[in-house]
Amino acid sequence: MTVLLRADGLAKAFGGVRALDACTIEVDQGSVTGLIGPNGSGKTTLFNVMTGYERVDAGEVVLAGRKITNAAPDRVFDLGIGRTFQLTRIFARLTVLENMLVPTPRGGRRARGADETRKAGRGGPLGLKGAQADRRRAMDLLDFVGIARHAAVPAGTLSYGQRKLLELAYVLIAEPDLILLDEPAGGVNPSLVNHIAARIRELNADGTTFLIVEHNMEFVMGLCERVTVMDSGSVVASGPPGIIRTDPRVLDAYLGGALEDEDDA
Amino acid sequence: MGRQIAEAIVDGILVGGVYALMAVGLTLIFGVLDIINIAQGILVVLGAYLSYVLAVHLHIDLFLGLLITVPAMFLIGVAVQLAFIRPLRGQERTSMTLLVSYAVALIIEGILYKIFGPDYKQLSSWYVTRSVHVLGFYLPYIYLFGFALAVLLIVALYALLYRTPFGRSVRATMQDEVAARLIGINVSRVAAITYGIGVAVTAAGGMVFGATSGGFNPNSGYDLISRLLAIIILGGLGSIAGALVASVFMLTLESLVDVWSPNWAIVVFYAALVIVLVVRPTGFLGRREVRAQ
Amino acid sequence: MRPPGGSGLPGAGWRLGGVAVLLAVAAVFPLVFTNPVITNYGVFALIFAGAASAWNLFSGYSGYISLGHAVFFGSGAYTVGIAAKAWHLTGLAVFGLLPLAAAVAAAIAVPFGLVALRVRRHTFIVVTIAVFFIFQLMAYNLSFTGGTTGLSAPFLNWQAASYNDPFYYIALVIVVAAVALSWLVRRSRFGLQLRAIRDDEDRARGLGVRAMRVKLGAFAISAAFTGLLGGVWFYYLTQVQPPSGFDPLFDLSIALMTFFGGIGSLSGPVLGALIIEPGQLYLTTRFTNGYVSEILLGAIFLLVILLLPRGVIPTATERITAWRAARARQAPAPPDAGPEGQAGAGEGTGPGAVDGPAVRTGGTPR
Predict the structure, then answer these.
(1) Which residues of chain A make contact with C60, given a CB cutoff of 8 A?
(2) Which side of chain C, N or C, has fewer Cβ within a 10 Å radius?
(3) ∠ CA B265-B267-B272, rounded to 5°
(4) By the 8 A CB rule, do B4 and B259 touch?
(5) Which domains does chain B have, with CATH numbers?
(6) CA of A69, closest CA in chain C: separation in Å?
(7) Domain locations in chain C?
């Protein structure tokens, strides 16, 4: 198993609060890795730091052997990392389809995709929106996540769950190698949660690596082949879901006793 | 030459104190309400006119008159905030309030023109024209009194912010408005009162400005506000200490350049702003922002 | 956003027709109303319509409110003045200097933007104000700008009766070009990214948008048009001085016109200018003391921002659409085409804009 992303000894403090404390984590190429931990354990900060929305105080972030610590968000994007936000960030005033067309086409991973991406990127410096390949791909992706019929409405009118799907879709359009999902199932109704899980499995089968922050234990345990647990800014345990479930350190982290489960579904 | 420079520095520090008074109000308003109060410039001028009316028509001493003008300006500030600023909501609140503030400034300027006309006015009193002779320098009394007033008011402001429950609410709101609301702080009230305080402080600044500017008219607002804005940005938006440091620094700098070339002195002001922003987009003491918004 | 079944207003065909009619009217306006007093209003209205459109192309789309566009306007004016004097140009040749005015303005926009666009939005506004004052001061103090007296244009010995007309048509051409370019930008990926920056700049960067490049590009284009219009304005008035070329009320005026007509939309700035500028002109001629127009400008601005934040035209459009939707609801329920709501509709993606989103309701790309 090759390691795709590695964060080494990350430290980040906000005033007196140490959000990340000697945090070390590894994500294997082609895996679906879960990241769990109680509120305030530093999961979102870790994401922010890895994707350039915050700077680290110390430590390194390494992508496929290359140091990318403190790279700016647009550089992180170029390097093939996509990421969603816990409180969805979409372009509310643009239509759903227009949201999909904002990301700059990268040189895609797959040969087929690369060909289309090249065609899509054309249109001169103004990049006139007439590029058919662009829009077709965008509509395909909207279809894949299931919100294609809302393509023409302003994204601001979408429901929370639909916004999560939109975020996933436009992150996908750049064909990233690694996708960081921040609570993809949070606040979403159960049928949609299964839908999202299925999409993730499909994409993973195609070669995309995932790192997923989630509180929904059933979602995480069912989907991830490896689960990493954070507490107070550092990693306390990492391993297959079955082992993690019963690891005393993990139970400790969640403040004694059974894991707080949202598994009443 | 050395003497001229020394004088320039002393002048700069003294005037800097006065500007600090006005700048502190402006940065306080930004810190709590997250808005840039462009109207502050013309409000200083309004304060000056109020002092003028009290002095000329009622023969009230300038400093005594502050007992009237400061509360009056406080009320005016609260009224403006309630009427024009509170109703604004939404994503682009910051830009909108800036424009609203500009519009209010225009209206006030127009009204002042109508009432007072374009002629330059000057506040005067015995301490404006006379100086004290210290160490070979002539320091006009007004500057000393003004500086003392500035120090007094800034200390009072600090006391208010750090020693009173209200001040705690203000600081909480400055740090995190949502959290402040959640712990029961009436953010709207805090906003209105803070705006009032920020404006009231300008009444004091306005009086000293009116006495030391060498003549003011409604048009003086532009020059004032552009300096004040440069100062608070340099000092870091929301930082009171920063406003203080930046005021003294900028005014001293301008004073020094003025010795060499009066015409270009003011440009130095803005040029310094631009240069600092290139090097450090958050100003001297500003909070580290998470990338350009 | 749209009532099911399509917009409440006429479709694309009708809109194009409307635009054509407007253009035709504008074209024959000076031939019908030959009185120079009236065409004078026309010239100013068009100059400001162009300036507002140019301003909107940057500030409206990106959300960065600039209060320093007077820098470009004045620079354009002074460029034409200085060049005409230096190269001894007169008559129609002076119009040949207009591209130079645009180029100079754009050239100024680059370093200006590189400094100003790195900071947060409200700091940006202040920086634009600061740069504006720097330029005004330079105009007063530099030798080649003529100082307080300013510059004057070579005298045009055209007939008084039709003197305004060439200026009118040149301004008209510029306005049409500005609006056309705004439309093109809106439809392009560049424009999309610009508007995404307005909604969430960090997010846009995280998706590969080269924010600085995009903002700077829009800034420069906007500056070029504004400079162009400054040049026309200078030659029309035959003079420029620091306070008129760099007028602190310039930016507020075009901002007001744009907000009034609907910021971010295509027709908004033009319509706003066509309504407000003649009013302003009238006031300045009627009341020679500046203060009445100032008070009114401020008051109208307050009214617009507080009561009609999305602008008169988008709000009116929404009212009409809602009224029609209410009428349509008496008909059998049309198929579901997505959530109805006014969120974001006022920004020009709604039915009132001259363009429309590229995709019709129903999800099939055009």
Answers:
(1) none
(2) C
(3) 100
(4) yes
(5) 2-279 (1.10.3470)
(6) 15
(7) 21-247
